[in-house]
């Protein structure tokens, strides 16, 4: 028995356990699985980390298998996400990573076309924090590694890469929150005076536009996906503003030398250490009251999204015109919790798929619910 026959037999066993009536269409399922295996074979570092650290997704809470749903069908059983085993994944700099899923998207993400091949802002940081006068509870810093994209972003957690909520950049909370999109930042002026005017205009509705511009100039040059020319203008702007104290030949926590810009705004003290020659941030310190945090920037670069990171998201396939039997196989293969309902249709043959929710191309997590609409005929 060759590899494809073994895979088909294994799949038949899984499908029979869930829905014994299904006849697996090997000609449709095996090629898709082979493509997935080939795509995943390219990764080395993160692929190994995933093998050690387990799956990146916790199964979504659903109605129990066997629950009757509208349309007369029942929820399908979905195997749980693999439990983490072995040592946890670390950042590319070897730092321990968090495991909080607070920033994972609640629902499906609709990515822009070509999201896999797009450019992402890759940021690797080392973060620690403490209270003044107190020893930190854990003296080992936390690593954060993210790939910020336009419409979809990812973060490397202790159990592997995962999609994260894509919020705006340079966010100011309020009655009407203000933020910049990826495209907004890319279009910012590269001359300091014009950049200042653009920030003031954007934050004018806050009533504290000057303070907002000062505060966000620091974040524009550290953790926002600003093109190099915009970043350079941001540093010139920051160091030219009156409340900012500039100092040369300052060392960051890693012993790297740069220039520092310190200012007080919004009841906090902020210090940015910047390597002017390389046009990259080195460190951002933020103190408010007794709380103090320090973020060391180890990597800030625009790169393609690694395949193993992209593969951590499940892309809802095109199920249109498939039969229920074939869809159930695909749902098992893709780890989706599919439920079925029916609608009358004058055009779609009875028993075939009219649509899905989320639709084709949406990015979801392991075990995500997908509602399949089948044709009940005319």
Automatic annotation (TrEMBL):
<dbReference type="Pfam" id="PF03793">
    <property type="entry name" value="PASTA"/>
</dbReference>
<feature type="region of interest" description="Disordered">
    <location>
        <begin position="62"/>
        <end position="99"/>
    </location>
</feature>
<feature type="domain" description="PASTA">
    <location>
        <begin position="311"/>
        <end position="376"/>
    </location>
</feature>
<dbReference type="InterPro" id="IPR005543">
    <property type="entry name" value="PASTA_dom"/>
</dbReference>
<protein>
    <submittedName>
        <fullName>PASTA domain-containing protein</fullName>
    </submittedName>
</protein>
